[in-house]
Amino acid sequence: MTITRLLQTVNLPKAAWRPHWCSTPSKNRVNFVSAAPYDAIKALLEAGVSPKEVQRSEFVVTEIPLHVIVPKHIPKAQDIIDAFNKGLIILRENGRYEVLKQECNWLE
Hints:
The chain is mainly alpha-helical and 108 residues long. Helices cover 39% and strands 7% of the residues.
């Protein structure tokens, strides 16, 4: 099964994946697919393919920062954001952040 077909068979929004050709494509073969890591892993797992069977490039196509947001009308919204940031700093300082990344197979 090609990666394009694989990605088409799972329930992902079309904007979540887009095939890119890095060389002359062979018939029924995709040489390169740009996909968000979690979307790609979800697609592979839903198709019964182990992510270990696919080579992941370390080349970064794009970086999308993630942010925690709390609506201003929520009481103590800034306190919630400050507590989150403080907790994240603690997790990074004590090494738990890296452990969680490995345990949860996070990709950065």
